[in-house]
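Structure tokens please, single chain.
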Amino acid sequence: MFDATSIIYLYICIIISTILFDLWYTFYDRLSAKRNKKKTKQYKEKIVEEINKKKMKKEEKHLKYFTKKLRRVNNLLAYQSALDELKKEEGKEKIDHYLTIYGILFQNLVVHYRKKNSIYKAFLASFLTKHYPFRLSWNRYIDDEMMNYVSDKSIYCRENAMLYFYQRGSSDLVLQALKKLNRNNLYYNKKQFANDLLKFRGNHEELDHALMKDFSNFSVAIQIGIVNYFRFSNNDFRKKIYEMLKSSHYDKEVDLAFIRYLGKNVYMEALPLLLSFLQMDDEKNIEYKIITAQVIFSYDVEQVRKALIFCLSDNNWYIRKNAAESLFKMKRSEEDDEMLLNLEDRYAKEMVEYVFVSKRKKQIKKKDGSSYVSVN
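Here you go.
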């Protein structure tokens, strides 16, 4: 057993050690920042020396210097800072021209970083995504190496490699990378995937049709991401997605993504199918009714409003809430408002009052004069 004095001494030692560590870390952090600032200045001077030459061309001395230096991640960070500052000071065009001439430098780096830890490879992929002048040139060797990064064990490395291909702007390479992810059953967050696809710098029409052509070959998660991306695409897939939803050949979660797509991109041919979901009485597929009630307000016709008013009396709280919120967003007729005022179901009346009052309060804050029905 420890006596009280020993415990106090131990506690004091821990406190002193913590203070010493904190002081050491602060000193080291400041020293590192000072070193990086000095490196950034040195790298800027060397790059400026190159870009100010009358005829810029690849110099072996410059290439060897940075090939050696940038093997260390800290140096690559300083180099990135130098490029960021010079793009503002000298202009992006000059720096992009410099990077094009020294493209072999990045080819050398991907070879070196191949054996590095995944976190370092992730940073290199991020660096290339941000700085490589794809609009002026591209390097097939770097493309091939980034394709290897797509199957890395690190999710950050995989995602940064995908961002590289979106910035690269090749629909063929994006499709190839997605197939590799799919083949190896590697995780790619569907929401992040949809957002990343919007960053694609190439021909979106070509990419979209390529994704649709191979749609059935992808995993459920990738299919959902593709449909979510299509919701914000300029290409019209309404008819195709309606037919896919009607086919019942896809996973439930994919069907729900189809419904969300048709909610944002109105296709009147799909209305009978959407209304049939509102009339479903199948607990196993209740999600169809919940999501349809949430998005069908875009189809602002009497038939839809009547169906939503009927849904206000559903046993499911989410269906009642979504139906009330959709009705609030629609241009209701006097007959619709009369039906809402005379609802006999207590739960339906409470939901309408809850949703309409809360929405109205938000509108007042925004000084919006939208219509409102007071329910007693």
